[in-house]
Structure formats: structure tokens, C-alpha cells
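It is worth pausing here to work through a concrete case rather than discussing structure prediction in the abstract. The textbook approach is simple: state the sequence, then state the predicted structure, then interpret. We follow exactly that order.
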Amino acid sequence: MYRRYIKRLLDVIISVILLIVLCPLIILIAIVTYIELGWPIFNHRKEKEGQYHKIFIMYKFRTSLPKKPNSKEKVFTNVTRFIDYSRLNELPQLFNVLKGDMSLVGPRPFIPGDDLPKDKISEKRYLLKPGITGLFQIRDGGTHKEKLECDIKYYDNLSFWLDLKIVLKTPAAIIRKMMAK
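Step two, the predicted structure:
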């Protein structure tokens, strides 16, 4: 019951509240992104693989300039680096939650066509909508294998209380990761 109806209802209610409360911040980030990087302010077509392997466009503020030739590193400004590290660039994903492509909590989506170890990815992770945050995101790093294990652990233990725990631990995890950089 929680998985199907209550979780979706909470996603919609909380997303609407967050969008209303955070609207000034979202507008400010959009303006700063435009001033710092110009158009477009959103990443170009960030296709992701969601529930049941369905492809969707994940919204996210752009935080870097195109990579320089022969360079592996993204080019940030001081302001856009902060927006990226603080994960404020992911606030537009609240619109993905409203559309029903994502949930507030769930496994992070993969990029379609990524070279992933198909035999090691449980189909359970695709039975849920991908989340803005998740069980792996509140940890202090880990391997790709541990990420996949967290996805299964989340699926097997999905509950309101686990989602609440993850949501409450996410800000502290973001701050810890920012301090480590």
C-alpha cells in the first residue's frame, strides 16, 4: 500500500510544498546560472533510465562549461562549483517528481546505454521510481557494487520510516561531502 499510493501522494504533496518554499532560490539559481554560464541554464537532454527501464529527461541546472579539448575535467566558476557540490543544481528534479518520472527517495537513475554489469544489476531496482536521494546517497561514498547493494536493500526494506530516515539524513550527507572536497 505504501509503495504504490501513499508514497506517490507524499511525493506530490512534499514536492509542491518544496517548490513553493524554494521558488525564490530556484529563480536565483537560474539567474546566477545565466549570468555565470549563459544559455542554456539546464543541462541538455539528460536522459535517464527510470522505472521499468523507461527513458525520461531528468531536469538539472547546468553548472559547468563544455570540457576543453583533451581535458577530462569540467570547467566550473566558483559559484557554479558551489551549486554543484551543494546539489542545489538538482532542485529542478522536483518537477520530475511531480510529473511522475521520479520519487523523492529511490535508487538514482542510470544513463541509458551506459556500460553496466547487466548480470549484477537486480531488476528490483527498476521496479521503483528513481529518487532525488537514496540509501546510497546518505553514505560516505562506496563502490558501484555497494551502490547496487543499497538499491536492493532499499527495495527489500521500503517503508515510510526508511524514506523519512533517508530524507532527514540527506542534508547532513551533502554537507559532509561538501566539507570533504
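Step three, interpretation. Residues 108 and 130 are 5 Å apart (CA to CA). Strands lie at 47-49, 55-57, 103-105, 131-133.
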